[in-house]
Design brief:
It is built from 14 helices and twelve strands. By secondary structure, it is an alpha/beta fold. The longest helix is centred in the C-terminal third of the chain and has 20 residues. The N and C termini lie far apart (55 Å). The structure holds ligand LCS.
Length: 397
């Protein structure tokens, strides 16, 4: 069946092309664990470099297992081409350096993952790239006035790490399209199973593959996908020379993760909604952040652009503030106290001192990251076990 005619869940399992190894008929596509590829003769080697013949050369320049993952991710995000990277940060850094020059400007949503925020700060200091932030919750209302003639990129993260603020992708894309500026969306928190920004008008989509797409907490990786005319220059001029490539073994593992993404996202979303409802009803909890709750200020926008669930990320603040949050983190027995997210297992962490420790106290306040905010990555265990464990830990808060 032509993948173009497959429904999304079928593409996740089967796309983008027959995986059977043509040489051995192995059902699963092999891990081409090799650094280099052999030429039949010197002339062919030269032609491979000049592009006259299509031939693998060297794994930094291209590898069959890695390419299969790139094609699959592009297809799952409804676009043409993709590049995978050694990490989400390698994807973000390479994209920024490829699209923005010294003296030019990026307009970004606030908050962002702490590592992204830190790198944007470095880009400002070392490369003279100006980064202007707009609060995620009012992003598209304030965007037009922030676009200067030297703005080269609009960069958003939605749902945002760790506040779960939502940026309206379609409304933002209307403005960036009219201005002719590429819109890049970090879709890590939703994954393409729940949200496909390119279908909503975005130009490029970024992922930390470390999270939901791989899903099993055993790989670090990143991706950038989009139309061929935007992706190929980034690959040719930046990716293969900056060199932050994904290893073939990791590409194989991430490919395996993609096959169950739709099932996992459904369960993550169901469990997270129940955990969010439990926390919202708990007397020690001051506030819960989850786009699937009607109390979320952008619940209607989330409903419009996320399909089939609101993902597995929930944040909350206790009435007892940071100290009470620390008590919960120190008393959970089933939840794992660790950063990262999107694993099968449930994780708990403290953004202000961990994932977002690159923010100053003033920057945390501006981004709406309360010092007492606790972040949950709700896994796919039995949700009652997760709630029971939080309930007992909350007794210490
Ligand atoms: N984008 C988002 C939204 C992220 O949450 C992360 C990492 C990245 C990009 C970077 O990806 P990486 O290089 O780690 O693959 N977020 C993390 C977090 O919240 N805890 O640990 C890492």
């Amino acid at each position: 069946m032509d993948p173009a005619h497959m429904r999304w869940d079928t593409k996740a399992v089967r796309g983008p092309r027959e995986e059977t190894d043509p040489t051995t008929l192995a059902h699963r596509f092999p891990i081409y664990q090799t650094s280099t590829f052999v030429f039949e003769n010197a002339r062919q080697g030269g032609q491979a470099f000049s592009g006259e013949v299509s031939h693998y050369i060297y794994t930094r320049l291209g590898n069959p297992t890695v390419e299969l993952l790139e094609q699959k991710l592009a297809q799952l995000e409804s676009t043409e081409a993709g590049i995978v990277f050694a990490s989400g940060m390698a994807a973000i850094a390479t994209t920024l350096l490829a699209l923005v020059k010294p003296g030019e400007r990026v307009v970004a949503s606030d908050p962002l993952y702490g590592g992204t925020f830190h790198f944007f700060h470095i880009a400002q200091e070392h490369f003279g790239i100006e980064v202007h932030y707009i609060k995620a919750s009012e992003f598209h209302e304030k965007l037009a006035e922030a676009l200067t003639p030297n703005t080269r990129l609009v960069y958003i993260e939605t749902p945002a790490n760790p506040t779960l603020d939502i940026v309206d992708i379609a409304e933002t894309a209307k403005i960036t399209r009219q201005a002719g500026i590429p819109l890049v969306v970090d879709n890590t928190f939703a994954s393409p199973a729940l949200q496909r920004p390119i279908e909503l008008g975005a130009d490029l989509v970024l992922h930390s593959l470390t999270k939901y797409i791989n899903g099993h907490g055993d790989v670090v990786g990143g991706a950038l996908v989009g139309p061929r005319d935007l992706i190929e220059p980034i690959r040719k001029d930046f990716h293969v020379h900056v060199g932050g490539i994904m290893a073939p073994l990791n590409a194989f593992l991430v490919l395996r993760g993609t096959k169950t993404l739709h099932l996992r996202m459904q369960r993550h979303s169901e469990n997270a909604l129940e955990v969010a409802r439990f926390l919202e009803g708990h007397p020690k909890v001051a506030r819960v952040f989850y786009p699937g709750l009607p109390s979320h200020p952008q619940h209607e926008v989330a409903k419009k652009q996320m399909k089939g669930g609101f993902s597995g990320m929930v944040s909350f603040i206790l009435k007892g503030g940071k100290e009470a949050g620390i008590q919960v983190m120190d008393h959970v027995k089933l939840w794992t106290l660790a950063v990262s997210l999107g694993d099968t297992d449930s994780l708990i962490e403290h953004p202000a001192s961990m994932t977002h420790s690159s923010y100053s106290p003033e920057e945390l306040a501006r981004a709406g990251i309360d010092p007492g905010l606790v972040r949950l990555s709700v896994g796919i265990e039995d949700v009652q076990d997760l709630i029971d464990d939080l309930d007992q830990a909350l007794k210490y808060a």
